[in-house]
Specification:
mainly alpha; globular
């Protein structure tokens, strides 16, 4: 039995495309749950550290907050250069979503990301129906 929260992620990721093909939300579900939940847990741990130790100084010339920098670090983790052919091949063989969608899907489901970047409600990165499993 698939929970309502899992169905939300299945449908959301199945709407993401690579070329003319869609991500298989069913076969990537476990990893999508891990990516979304891992981001949430890591941000909570980071904020706990900040609460105990105080904010770090901002990095000069970047014009981002420390919370924004946290999310930039998350996104950079999945930064990759791939041809369309490579990404299409991975759709049928990899139980992970393509890197772009690992980042975008996790961030658009994150209330904390939307708050850190002050994304307008209903915008692509602050969707109204966020998928949250845990």
């Amino acid at each position: 039995v698939v929970s309502t929260q899992s169905k939300c992620l299945i449908d959301q990721y199945a709407s993401f495309t690579v070329g003319n093909s869609n991500v298989d939300g069913n076969s990537t579900l476990g990893e999508n749950i891990a990516d979304n939940g891992g981001l949430k847990s890591a941000f909570r741990a980071y904020r706990l550290w900040v609460d105990q130790h105080g904010n770090q100084r901002l990095l000069p010339s970047l014009n981002v907050t420390n919370d924004q920098l946290f999310f930039l670090g998350f996104a950079q983790l999945w930064c990759q250069i791939s041809t369309d052919e490579q990404m299409l091949m991975s759709l049928g063989t990899d139980d992970h979503s393509p890197g772009k969608w690992r980042v975008m899907g996790s961030l658009m489901n994150s209330y904390e990301f939307s708050e850190a970047y002050k994304c307008s409600s209903g915008s692509p990165m602050n969707i109204t129906n966020k998928c949250v499993v845990w």
